[in-house]
Amino acid sequence: MVKKKNEVYLLSVLIILLITINYSYLDTKLENYLSTSETAHVERVIDGDTIEIENKTSVRLLGINSPEKGELYYNEAKEFLNKQVLNKTIKLEFGKDKYDMYQRILAYVYDNNQNVNLEIVRNGLANYYFPSGKDRHYNEFKQAWEDCIKENKNLCEKSENKCSDCIELKEFDYNEQEIILYNKCNYDCELSSWTIKDEGRKKFVFPEFILEKNRDVIIIVSNKTNTDKILFWQGENYIWTKTGDTLFLREDSGKLILWKGY
Asked: Which pTM was predicted?
């Protein structure tokens, strides 16, 4: 019995000793797990909204969506981010989800207390983007986009196409995934290769299409065949999210015709 008590005592001492030795290590691990932010060194800029930190870990910038390779202002967005963060130690602030489906870290990036993500939107090199729902930064990013619109910068630049003031968004029913555009001018407008896009990567490209004067056209998310009056956004189950989204209409050169968020 005494031997058993001694063994229990010895085991207890060993456990306490082990915990004591590893306390600082465990404490650090727990702190990192629970922390909403951390610092990191930027080793590479992949594009306008993605960077690479130590150990080739990818970080996807929250709140923004920059142009894809080959799209207007892709190079400018990447270069802007390069100048802001490359080879710097930055702060990463996490949202409600720390990782996306590709295991990239999701974060707001800060350099000297400046929100770099926000500056990219303000300079018209990305649109604001909140696919998981609006967080505490949403209003800042929407305001940055509106400021960019006023300054007519880059992706916010208003089209000078003769039909830029003709086309109105008559209806935007995101519940039914339906859009109606109306040509209020007294002349026809060619919309061939114009695009409609959400906050993310989903894009509808107009086929050869002329919207006649004082007429409208309906765009519906469906796999049906186009008609003279109705165009179908094929290949997607839905475009507009229930948590909030934005419609961007651009002419064939990429300049902005109109936008509408909810």
From this structure: 0.85
Residue 202's closest CA among 141, 248, 136, 260?
Answer: 248
Q: What count of residues does the chain have?
A: 262
How far is it, in rounded angstroms, from Cα 33 to Cα 48? 28
Beta-carbon contacts of 137 under 8 Å, excluding residues fewer than 6 positions away, are 62, 63, 108, 115, 118
Give DSSP secondary structure letters for 143-171: HHHHHHHHHT-GGGPBP-STTTTTEEEEE
The CATH number of 37-155 is: 2.40.50.90
* CB-facing half-sphere around the CA of 121: CA atoms within 13 A: 25
Nearest to 49 by CA among 63, 31, 70, 34: 63
Beta bridge partners of 190: 210
Q: Was domain 158-261 assigned CATH 3.30.110.10?
A: no
The CA R_g of the chain, rounded to the nearest whole Å, is: 25
Give the residue range(s) of CATH 2.40.50.90 domains in the chain.
37-155
Supply the pLDDT for residue 27.
39
Separation between Cα atoms, residue 68 and residue 125, nearest integer Å: 11
Note the pLDDT of residue 9: 52
In this prediction, residue 35 carries a pLDDT of 61
Quick: pLDDT tens for 63-74. 999 999 999 999
Where exactly does CATH 2.60.40.1260 map onto the chain?
A: 158-261
